[in-house]
Structures
1.
Amino acid sequence: MREEWNMKSGKRSGKKRPEVDREVFEEVEGIYAELEGRLAGLERDCRVVTRCCRFQLTGEVPVLTLGEALVAARGVRASGRRELKPHPEGACPLLGKEGRCTIYRDRPFGCRTHFCRAAGGVVPRKLVGDLIQRLEALDEKLGGDGSRGLPEAIAAVL
Ligand code: SF4
């Protein structure tokens, strides 16, 4: 039986299969690695300014496919959390007290390609369109229903 996600309840349907998670993690990590390689060629880099994490300032919230949400949720669980608490200032719930991303290694695709000027601005779609398509294909394969805003997407699979 193929394991799927019920996006309304946030629960798995079907038998629990850890190997499915492993495959998802490997696929998403592979996409992130490919992206990092392309960004390195552009001499574009995240400076950990974290302005893009302050949703209350930017009015922009990254959207995640299901595979990205599963990887991000893994990072959340690794830090000992079982739920996302809203940030007191309206920033990303994963922005830590010291102003750093608490799941940096597992941060979503949008956090790697965002509009941050310090990091070099928006990555042109033509450079990453195929990677986005791979994330969307994985979302469909897993039974996801398309991209969702970061807090909702991660909370649904924690
Ligand atoms: S996941 Fe991390 S990098 Fe992305 S918006 Fe949240 S704190 Fe910032």
2.
Amino acid sequence: MKKKGSIVVLIVFVLILFISWPLLTNQYDKQNKFYLFVKELIPQNIKEGIKNNFLSELRSKYYEIKNNRLIEKKESQGYQGLLISEKKIKSEDLGHTYLTKEFFLPFKRLDVNLGWKANENSKRAHYVEIIEENIIALSGLGEIIIFKKNNLQNKKLDQKIIPNNLVTKIESLNNKFLGVRDLYYDKLDRHIYITTVIKNTKGTTLNIFKAKFNKDNLAFERLFDLDEYHQNYSVQTGGRIEKFENDKILFSVGTFTNQEKAQDLKSSFGKILSINKKNGDAKIISFGHRNPQGLAYIPEKNIILNSEHGPKGGDEINLNKSFKKLQNFGWNVSSYGIEYDGTDPYKKSHKEFGFVEPFKNFTPSIGISEIIHATEDTKGKSFLYASSLRAGSIYVFEVDFQNEKILAEDRIYFKNQRIRDLKYDKESKSLIAIFELTPSIAMIKL
Ligand SMILES: [Ca+2]
């Protein structure tokens, strides 16, 4: 009898371990309803306690053991940019197949042990940009590499370093370099623009630097100093740069956790700005934003789109059709999310309070990062692509901009990835993405 009992106990134990394993190792799909439900059963402070006391370390060790060979290979291959994998991924909703190639990026891996909010991980967020027949990537440490775009069709990228003065320039202005928030190439003035997080005696802020594109050396100058400070390091900086009309670029700025500043027009926090590319003059385009980390401007339709991280839930894609007038997107009054401690001080409706409703709301949060727009040539259909950190996915939307409607929606899920940056290459009809856990650069054929 005793033996039978212990077998039952063993089976139950194995079953519990089997079910909780993806949660313990943080490998569950962050959009999976079952795991989200189980997580909700555990109070927030207990969750934090478990995580801080042993779970983070356990996860880090597990990741190290599991990916030991991958990490070793990454280090030994240097700047070759070797192909890691080539596979077909079937999308979750529409069942389309996407050929995905993944290559090594010679940059530091996000430290899962520290958590995504950690100061140190600020230097482990990397960005990518297409410049004519080349692709460049920028590391969180300020290193810039370049390779031929066509090499994405081969088995290695053959990456080369472009020497640059970004960090020394920041230091010469008596600032400390804390990381980067975007990399942007302007086709008209042929300059590279970089958003940096910097720190000095007044606190932490954002600066934009620019340099004339050149394959041999990049000499950066400061274009724009946000000059509004937050005392501590914050991940809620925004920092995305996008093309805009005339001599301007668009620039998104987060609240730096000063949430009420999003509604204060005397503050630059929680805004989307336009910045003059020549003299750095800034103007507010829209306000009521929380942490906008994605921007897309569609000149032929006169539309600005932005993505932003909500609190717990309430990630948004916002559509601005009337940007000649100042629009308010509602943060920190209206949000479809709640606070992490379970309280909900937010109005749900945006419209009722004079704000623009989100074009798309994601609850639970997907950790939305960049959004890009592409038009399919043959049928003239418009598609939006949104990358996500938390949900490890690229979301695909077929959109009718005229009627502000989403016609179809799909999700391409990359297990155990966080997607930081996204670009569209018209020539190869592919998405180019930064996966930040290895890290790697991916090409997803559309
Ligand atoms: Ca909003």
